[in-house]
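Dear all,

This email documents one entry for the complex benchmark we are building for the journal club exercise. For each entry we list the sequence lines for every component of the assembly. Then comes the predicted three-dimensional structure of the complex as a token string, followed by one or two observations. Please use this as the template for your own entries, and keep the labels exactly as they appear.
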Amino acid sequence: MPSEGAAGCGRWSEMLESLLALGGLVLLRDSVEWEGRSFLKALIRKAALSGEQVRILGCEVSEEEFREGFDSDVNSRLVYHDLFRDPLNWSKTGEAPPGGPLGALRAMCKRTDPGPVTIAIDSLSWLLLRQPCTTVCQVLHALSHRTPCPGHSPAVEQVRVLGLLHEELHGPGPVGALSSLAQTEVTLGGTAGLDSAHIVFRRPRQRPTHQTQWFSILPDFSLDLQEGPRLECQPHPDPYTSPVDPTTHLTFNLRLSKKEKEARDGLTLPFQFSSEKQQALLRPGQGQAASHIFYEPDAYDDLDQEDPDDDLDV
Amino acid sequence: MAAVATCGAGAGGTESMAAATSKSNVTSFQRRGPRARGTDSGGPRLVSIAGTRPSVRNGQLLVSTGLPALDQLLGGGLAVGTVLLVEEDKYSIYSPLLFKYFLAEGIINGHTLLVASAKEDPADILQELPAPLLDDSCKKEFDEDVCNKKPESDIKMKIAWRYQLSPKMEVGPVTSSRFGHYYDVSKRIPRELIETSKWHGFFLPEKMSSADKVECCSLTPGYMKLLHFIQNIIYEEGFDGSNPQKKQRNILRIGIQSLGLPLWGDDVCCSENCDSSHSLSKFLYILRGLLRTSLSACIITMPTHLIQNKAIIARVTNLSDTVVALESFVGSERETNPLYKDYHGLIHIRQIPRLNNLICDESDVKDLAFKLKRKLFTIEKISDALKWWSRRS
């Protein structure tokens, strides 16, 4: 059990629960520097302790090595399918189901009792290197969205697939394809001494939420949440801070005082048809001088008053 | 004010023209309901099918995409017999909405639906369609939206007082409109509407049995099955005119969700030099052939951000008729940019087809952004103040 106090105990449990709660595919992306198998084992331990059955497809390490570190009650709940010892089934013992590793996965999906099931794949990279990416995606999708078996209740049964992916082994294509399938994506990283998990939750039809957790894994594969490194250096200063105010150095006045506003509102606009204007138009001659036209003839102006159309015989 | 680009003189200046054809996008001219156009639209196809209208430019039969704002940007609507390709946004949050609007519009108009997906069961997709807004309630929605946005419109106009009584510039809901309806995204469509509608579903995992390993003519088996399915429906239900007994013509709305995902068996998203690199192009080519010879319209959403080979994206764009791309701000640096704080993403109209025409109805407006409000999905032009601002900083 974790050595932290009650607060720490609750928090790691919550975090793992939130990862497992969403169902579907949980993609664990690790790299050479930050290995993910311990995190996978921590998730498996959590699922086993909540009473579920966990089926493991082990391809990269031997069964003994995988089961190392688990308590006996956790180990008793693990159903291990070993592909490490004899991946191509050369010994022909007749145990291996037909169809290779993907057939084994499909068989796991079918043969289950009612209740939530967790399937852990160690690792997806192993499968991707040996099978076409499209087939792996189709099988994973079928696993996470399996239709309930006839005879059981029609409620959708929770199937969780935990897949470990070594992202450095693949190009952006397969990684992107698997990300789009995953409901939860955990990318492992960290700084010196501390591991971090960057978690993206993709709930259907909602915006994805991101979360970063710092942790360390104890020898019995329970998680210990940490605070994170003290000096959070900002590598990218916010480019949008302190914008230039465009209202400085203007040649006109943007802000009016109250008196100025009143004066502006009191103005009669030239095209506003007010009653005074109507009066002025109706009674033009009263007290106003007649309008004059001042005209300076140009050198080229023709001052002939005759109508040029008189010549026409119309 | 509304500058009508073509055929203005011919159609008569006194007629009110649809808002879609004006070059500026803000006009309050509304079309006075479809009249029986005898000879000038041409073609016996235009015996009115519910939910369609002829385009004012060339008489092309149009259906609504379900979003009147998008219809306006596409030149009135989506032409019957064409493909609307929606390039999905990164986390596929908003593109399913456009997909659902298209299908919901089909249900409201009584069109037949064909929903194909490799990811979700079509029955589940149909359960989640948005509910249509009835006339009274949607007027209320719009009024409250407009009031929230422009509080200063209440001030009496002092100079331009003649325009005070003119209708507002936004395309608001027209009561009892037969083309383009509004939907409430927060509510589901009533079950009775789905049950009375006619739809066909294609869910790839059910249709494919693992025994089929036939690779014929470089089309992935999933695509082949889908094309056969579509062809059967078109033939059996007479959408291509093959069944002359059918009196009442109808439109077939096809929706294909997330084409190109590895779940279809296509590895365009997985590798750059994929084996079946022509599979997707062939599929679109054959699909377009099927559509052109039938009364149908198709929407396809495609996760182009996953496609590794950019040449394939260019081919796919050329093979589709109308292409709209959504770019959401989620997870990108633009999310924190204060310029875009009112919006959820950008929408790019990448291509508009030239159907029986030398020019296309391309809008001048290139800076379009969308926002998913609580009940509505709106598309707006990014205001000029923001554009000026973005150039300064």
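Observations: Chain A touches chain B at residues 132-134, 137-138, 141-142, 171-174, 176-177, 180-181, 202, 205-208, 210, 238, 240, 243-244, 246, 269, 271-272 (CB under 8 Å). Residues 256 and 262 of chain A are 10 Å apart (CA to CA).
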